[in-house]
Amino acid sequence: MKTIRVVAAVICDSIEHKTKIFSTARGYGEFKGGWEFPGGKIEAGETSQQAVVREIREELDATVKVGDLIDTIEYDYPAFHLSMDCFWCEVASGELKLLEAEAARWLTKEELDSVQWLPADVTLIDKIRKSME
Against a cut of 0.90, is the pTM above it? Predict the structure, then answer.
Protein backbone atom coordinates (compact mmCIF):
# COMPACT_ATOMS: atom_id res chain seq x y z
CA MET A 1 0.00 0.00 0.00
CA LYS A 2 1.27 3.45 -0.90
CA THR A 3 2.20 5.74 2.02
CA ILE A 4 1.44 9.45 1.80
CA ARG A 5 3.38 11.71 4.19
CA VAL A 6 1.53 14.86 5.20
CA VAL A 7 1.44 17.53 7.87
CA ALA A 8 -1.48 19.09 9.70
CA ALA A 9 -1.63 22.42 11.51
CA VAL A 10 -3.73 22.43 14.66
CA ILE A 11 -4.09 26.20 14.69
CA CYS A 12 -5.10 27.54 18.08
CA ASP A 13 -5.76 31.03 19.38
CA SER A 14 -2.64 30.79 21.57
CA ILE A 15 -0.12 27.95 21.90
CA GLU A 16 0.25 28.76 25.62
CA HIS A 17 -3.49 29.10 26.39
CA LYS A 18 -5.50 27.06 23.91
CA THR A 19 -9.20 27.95 24.05
CA LYS A 20 -10.14 27.65 20.35
CA ILE A 21 -9.00 25.41 17.48
CA PHE A 22 -9.34 26.23 13.76
CA SER A 23 -10.87 23.56 11.54
CA THR A 24 -11.67 23.53 7.83
CA ALA A 25 -14.07 21.61 5.60
CA ARG A 26 -12.42 20.15 2.49
CA GLY A 27 -13.45 21.94 -0.67
CA TYR A 28 -12.48 19.23 -3.16
CA GLY A 29 -11.77 15.55 -3.75
CA GLU A 30 -13.08 12.30 -2.37
CA PHE A 31 -13.48 13.70 1.15
CA LYS A 32 -15.12 17.01 0.13
CA GLY A 33 -17.10 18.48 3.01
CA GLY A 34 -15.28 16.48 5.69
CA TRP A 35 -13.68 18.48 8.49
CA GLU A 36 -9.93 18.42 9.00
CA PHE A 37 -6.93 20.30 10.27
CA PRO A 38 -5.41 22.24 7.37
CA GLY A 39 -2.16 21.04 5.84
CA GLY A 40 -0.92 18.84 3.05
CA LYS A 41 1.87 16.78 1.52
CA ILE A 42 5.48 17.16 2.55
CA GLU A 43 7.56 18.04 -0.52
CA ALA A 44 11.02 16.61 -1.28
CA GLY A 45 13.72 18.28 0.79
CA GLU A 46 11.25 19.85 3.25
CA THR A 47 11.07 19.27 6.98
CA SER A 48 7.61 18.70 8.46
CA GLN A 49 7.74 22.16 10.05
CA GLN A 50 8.63 23.82 6.72
CA ALA A 51 5.76 21.96 5.06
CA VAL A 52 3.28 23.25 7.66
CA VAL A 53 4.34 26.86 7.08
CA ARG A 54 4.17 26.48 3.27
CA GLU A 55 0.82 24.66 3.26
CA ILE A 56 -0.87 27.23 5.51
CA ARG A 57 0.47 30.06 3.35
CA GLU A 58 -0.92 28.27 0.24
CA GLU A 59 -4.28 27.23 1.73
CA LEU A 60 -5.06 30.09 4.12
CA ASP A 61 -2.81 33.02 3.06
CA ALA A 62 -1.31 33.40 6.54
CA THR A 63 1.99 32.66 8.25
CA VAL A 64 1.96 30.38 11.27
CA LYS A 65 4.36 29.88 14.14
CA VAL A 66 4.91 26.13 14.48
CA GLY A 67 4.93 24.73 18.01
CA ASP A 68 5.36 21.22 19.36
CA LEU A 69 4.51 18.01 17.55
CA ILE A 70 1.22 16.73 19.01
CA ASP A 71 1.41 13.30 17.41
CA THR A 72 2.14 11.43 14.19
CA ILE A 73 -1.07 9.76 13.08
CA GLU A 74 -0.77 6.51 11.13
CA TYR A 75 -4.06 5.69 9.40
CA ASP A 76 -5.04 3.21 6.69
CA TYR A 77 -7.52 4.56 4.17
CA PRO A 78 -8.80 2.04 1.56
CA ALA A 79 -6.42 3.27 -1.17
CA PHE A 80 -3.36 4.44 0.82
CA HIS A 81 -1.64 4.66 4.21
CA LEU A 82 -1.53 8.16 5.70
CA SER A 83 1.34 9.27 7.93
CA MET A 84 0.43 12.70 9.32
CA ASP A 85 2.65 14.86 11.55
CA CYS A 86 0.34 17.13 13.56
CA PHE A 87 1.71 20.34 15.09
CA TRP A 88 0.34 23.02 17.38
CA CYS A 89 0.37 26.32 15.47
CA GLU A 90 -0.75 29.89 15.94
CA VAL A 91 -1.12 32.69 13.42
CA ALA A 92 2.05 34.80 13.30
CA SER A 93 0.97 37.19 10.54
CA GLY A 94 -1.93 37.69 8.17
CA GLU A 95 -5.54 36.62 8.48
CA LEU A 96 -6.85 33.13 7.75
CA LYS A 97 -8.54 33.24 4.31
CA LEU A 98 -10.15 30.19 2.76
CA LEU A 99 -8.37 29.64 -0.56
CA GLU A 100 -9.14 25.90 -0.85
CA ALA A 101 -11.55 24.93 1.94
CA GLU A 102 -15.31 25.38 1.59
CA ALA A 103 -15.89 26.38 5.23
CA ALA A 104 -14.05 26.96 8.50
CA ARG A 105 -14.87 27.21 12.19
CA TRP A 106 -13.10 28.09 15.41
CA LEU A 107 -14.09 25.37 17.89
CA THR A 108 -13.95 25.46 21.68
CA LYS A 109 -13.19 22.29 23.67
CA GLU A 110 -16.95 21.71 24.04
CA GLU A 111 -17.54 22.11 20.28
CA LEU A 112 -14.87 19.68 19.03
CA ASP A 113 -17.48 16.98 18.40
CA SER A 114 -19.83 19.35 16.51
CA VAL A 115 -18.24 18.72 13.09
CA GLN A 116 -17.81 15.52 11.06
CA TRP A 117 -14.03 14.96 11.22
CA LEU A 118 -12.24 12.95 8.55
CA PRO A 119 -11.23 9.50 9.87
CA ALA A 120 -7.52 10.24 10.42
CA ASP A 121 -8.18 13.64 12.02
CA VAL A 122 -10.75 12.30 14.49
CA THR A 123 -8.06 10.14 16.10
CA LEU A 124 -6.36 13.35 17.32
CA ILE A 125 -9.41 14.96 18.98
CA ASP A 126 -8.98 13.44 22.47
CA LYS A 127 -5.34 14.62 22.69
CA ILE A 128 -6.37 18.11 21.58
CA ARG A 129 -9.26 18.23 24.06
CA LYS A 130 -6.91 17.35 26.94
CA SER A 131 -4.59 20.24 26.00
CA MET A 132 -7.32 22.87 25.81
CA GLU A 133 -8.42 25.15 28.66
Answer: yes
